[in-house]
Write a structure and sequence with these properties.
Rossmann fold; alpha/beta
Length: about 140
């Protein structure tokens, strides 16, 4: 486990870009953080690191958005509004989680029981005492 401090949205984006450049097919990342912590900015950076040019926004109402134009497929989940875990079965989550792309799951802690055995947990926390744009980003291998 290690953490990185960023002090601007641009730094958070660049961290995401680096993560995307290093990502390997079949990896799953969970992304945890309160509203407004920069989850979408980090995800946009990851997409850029995967060479995806399409605009990236949070799939809050569709649960999953798939992007296939980069160096590997990118599956972006937002499971905040999942009411029952069975909803994940209905969208065929296993095809994404165990596929050949990178899967990013915002609010992944809400579906912990169906996560793969190994994944990377990314947690973003604000600390206003260190500045409005400060973020502490912890990355942990599970």
């Amino acid at each position: 486990m290690h953490f990185i401090e960023t002090f601007s949205p641009e730094e958070t984006f660049q961290l995401g870009r680096t993560l995307g450049e290093q990502a390997q097919p079949g990896e799953v990342y969970t992304l945890i953080g309160d509203l407004g912590t920069g989850k979408t900015v980090l995800t946009q950076g990851i997409a850029k690191g995967l060479l995806i040019e399409e605009p990236i926004c949070s799939p809050t109402f569709t649960i999953v958005q798939a992007y296939g134009q980069g160096r590997m497929p990118f599956y972006h989940f937002d499971v905040y509004r999942i009411g029952e875990i069975e909803e994940m079965d209905e969208i065929g989550y296993e095809d994404y989680f165990y596929g050949q792309g990178l899967t990013m799951i915002e609010w992944g802690n809400l579906i912990q029981e169906i996560l793969p055995e190994h994944y990377r947990e990314i947690q973003i926390v604000k600390d206003f005492e260190k500045g409005f744009d400060y973020r502490r980003i912890t990355i942990k291998e599970i």
